[in-house]
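Illustration: FAD-dependent oxidoreductase.
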Amino acid sequence: MSARVPVTPIDAGRITAYDHETDVLIVGYGCAGAAAALEADAAGAAVILLERQSGAGGSSALSGGEMYLGGGTPIQRACGSTDTPEAMEAFLLAALGPDADREKVGLYSRSGVEHYHWLAGHGVPFKPSLWGSPTWVPPTDDGLMWMGENAHPFDTIAAPAPRGHRVTSDGFGGKVLMAVLSEAIAGTGVAVHTDTAALRLVVEDGRVVGLVARHFDATVTYRARRGVVLTTGGFADNAELVAQHAPQLVGLGVNSDGGDDGRGIVMAQAAGAAVRHMSAAQVGISLVPGMMVRGMIVDKLGRRFVNEDVDPGLVGQAALYKHDLEVWVILDEQGYEEVPVEERWGVRPHHVAETLAELEQEIGMPEGALRTTVGEYNRFAERGEDPYFHKAARWLRPLRPPFAAIDVRRGMAPPEYGDGGTARGGAEVFTLGGLRTTVDGHVLDLDGTPIPGLFAAGRATSGLHAWGYISGTSLGDGTFFGRRAGTAAAG
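Result:
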């Protein structure tokens, strides 16, 4: 988005005729927009779905495809797991906080099974098998994953259950999710307008009634008789907004399709919308969780700072916000060899040494830093204990020479990217903050009052999250609250 492109709403009185009219106008064809369109259509509304690119997908199509669902889904039961909405809610409030949206988290948790059946009913595939170790994306097609629910301190807060429902796919599952939802939309009356970028909202007596857009070189006007739904994504691709709201993300790689420019957010702000948690972000740290959990992650002074078997999204946030990504994964030869080759994503140690003293020197850590940390770790690991961070006994054993260190700031890329490239700055990020909305997608103004005719869902909004992240909560949040926004707009 260019700062020179106006975003101030246009008064409807200035538009003499509209190029298109519909009941519900949805802006953005990622998972949230697709879910909104399907539900608005099911409610009997005429729907137009706008997409600035030439086809569906957005950032959703590039994701790993994990969907955070629970409360006792068929996949959980088939894998022998018992779960309750109450346990799911308690975990999410602890992991997504502080200041996670309690109303949204509660509703989402209570609706986990229903939302699973909605997805499966539209053809989204999930395989009833469990992948049991920490990873970003399993190298198999297993359909259920742990997302740190069984890691300290979360295992003391709620009964653990695996809730990462992974869309069945060869590689990342986001492309399959969007292909299935797109096929479902093709079977409805939803009109899809591609290569059409939103510019400004149209308002009439305080109500949002339409949109001005750009289709190639032509200006196009839309009237929405019932509502406009913004599902335009976050703002991680907008350097100006990132510097303004989330400066710690400046210079880092972005996990998106390149179109997360925040246009929908600022258009709504120009119409009086409030925003929340604009500094919050998901930090996809450049490490292999399977390596980290078999060793440790330390800061520039050689100190551990997190339980290594929590969800890697939480590790990434701790590494960036508390240590500016100056962190290293330390492990030994046995730990490295135990990670399956297909799960290593091509990552090799950057430093290898026979002694910890030599490794400290190679990295540039203070003398004795790693020797102290690894010595304490080994002393308790001999007994299967970790009194410092309470890592699960499954991953505890003394580290023996030779030792290795991986510099997270050097980056990496999953095989899915196909180019062997690396992330910039040791992490790829996307924003979590956005428009303040109700559970039904109504966009709220600064007084907490719904702006008539304006709805939003997905990463354009401040959804379940505050300053915490669990993998799968973006696709889950986007599809679930996208559905509710579509239904509310149709009403």
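Reading the tokens back as a structure: The chain is about 30% helix and 20% strand.
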